[in-house]
Every structure is written in C-alpha cells, then in structure tokens.
Amino acid sequence: MNNLLPIKIPASSRAGIISSFILIILLSACASKRHIIKEPLKEAGSVLLLEKLAQNELQFSCLTARFSIEYIYDKKRTEFKGQIRIRKDSIIWLSFSPALGIEMARLKITNDSVFFMNRINKTYLRGDYRFINDYLKTNIDFDILQSFIIGNDFQFYEKSKFKASVDGQEYRLSTAQRSKLKKFVKKDETDAKAFIQNIWLNPENFKITRVNIKEITNDKKLDAFYSNFKDHEGQLFPFDIVFEITADEKITVKVDYSRIRLDEPLTFPFSIPSKYERIY
Asked: 193-213, pLDDT tens digit by residue?
C-alpha cells in the first residue's frame, strides 16, 4: 500500500473536473428549486393553498406604521409621507404630510363611513365608500381595503370556488366569481357585486406576492404587488407595495412602509375645527 504513487492530473483535466463539479452543484440547486413548486394539488389543491395562506397571514389586533407614498395619475407624480393606524376589522386611520412634516390631511375609515379632513384648504367630508371608490375609480369595501393594505386575503368573502395552478415559480389561486358571504352582507349592500380574482403565493412562505380583482360587469381592475418581506416579531410583512388601478385612467400608488409596530394601544383622533367647511 505504501508503494502507491500519487496520481498526477494535468492542469487542463483539473480545470475540467472543477467545471464539472460546479455544473453538478448548479444543476442540483436548480433541481431543488424546481421541487419547491409541486403540481397541485388536483382536487384538494385550492383547499390546501388557502389553508397555508391563512396560517401565514399577518395576525394582529392593532397595527401602526410610517409610510411614504408616490401617487401617479395622468403622468403626474405626487409624493408624501404619513402614518397609518389600524384596529383590525374596525378602523383605518391615516395622516398625510408633505416633506416638511406638517400634517396636510387626515382620513378615518370605518366599516360603513369615511371621514376626510383637508388642513390646507380647511375643508372636510363625512360620507360613505362612494368617496373612496370615486377617488380610486373602483368599488371596494372595508374588508377588501384592509386586506390590500396589509397583504392578507379577504376575510368575509367565500373561498369555495378557487382553482389552484402553478404560474411560473409561484402558486396561483383563481376564481371567476367571488362574492361576500351572505351573513356579512348588510341591508344597504343589495348592490354588492361579485368579481374575478387571482392570488399569487410564494411557494416557500405562502405569503401573497400579487393579487388582483376585476369587476365582472366592467373593465375596472385593481392589482397589488407585494415585495421586500421582512420578519417583524416573528411574522413576515411586505414593506413595499405597488397598487395599480385601471379604470378610465390608470392610477399607480407605491407604498414603502417603515417603523411597523403591532398590538400597541392606539387612538384614532379626528376632531374637525368649527371653521372648516363641509364639502360632501
């Protein structure tokens, strides 16, 4: 055994061996990536994906965060910063400020009402969701709005009509007609509409990366894209969101979150000065 001589490998051969080794590693990595996506899922596919989605959604009772927004409409860009506060399924409160940090507007949204105060021109409005829907050129309610803001699925809409598939490197859930569950439909929502919806899920963490809804009776469409997921108190949260509203004109809203805090005591102040003029 001690008489065995070391085998000398020419430099060119060594390079070939190293290249082959690297190729094997790359192919193995690619193969591993492909295995992340498994063909669904057959009949139980949508049920499984919806369960995984629910298990990985953001859980909270209250949320507050700082944000910066870029609003693009008719090729015009407006940028501002602000703060958002949410009491789950109850109140969404926003304060908007320009670069100097002085509040220019405040918005409070409840399940059935919208309150808006403009400190620049000293006006305010108190109304319903027609204000939001006229402004965004779409038709949404509190559940849809809250879900889009935080990257969760809609809570009060039926889930039985989804179909599961693979789209690129993500899972996709699709339904041609999603409606609000009857027990959550209010008396004044007799005109509640069904819509087409698609949801894309990251196959590793089952967080929503994209969602869109389209009204069945017209061409209005709302898309949301979620990225820059970060661990926050053991939960993943999308710190970057892009909303695209397609109606008569296209509206793009880019949101960057920062300083997120969960389940801390919050207040939702909204006091309108007596000299302000009501416009709606």
From this structure: 688 999 999 999 999 999 999
Which phi-psi region, left, alpha or beta, contains residue 188 (left: φ > 0; alpha: ψ -120 to 50)? alpha
Q: What is the pTM of this model?
A: 0.81
The domain tally of the chain equals 1
Whether 88 is covered by a domain: the verdict is yes
Range of the domain at 223: 49-262
In a domain, 269, yes or no: no
Domain contains 225: yes
Q: Which residues of 154-175 are buried (b: 16+ CB within 10 A; e: fewer)?
A: bbebebeebebbeeeebbbbbb
Q: Which domain CATH number covers 60? A: 2.50.20.10
In a domain, 275, yes or no: no
Q: Which residues of 125-134 are buried (b: 16+ CB within 10 A; e: fewer)?
A: bbeebebbee
Asked if 225 and 242 touch (Cβ cutoff 8 Å), the reply is yes
Summarised one tens digit per residue, pLDDT across range 146-168 is 999 999 999 999 998 999 998 88
Buried/exposed 77-94: b ≥16 CB within 10 Å, e otherwise: eeeebbbbbbebeebbbb
Q: How far apart are alpha carbons 168 and 148 in whole angstroms?
A: 23
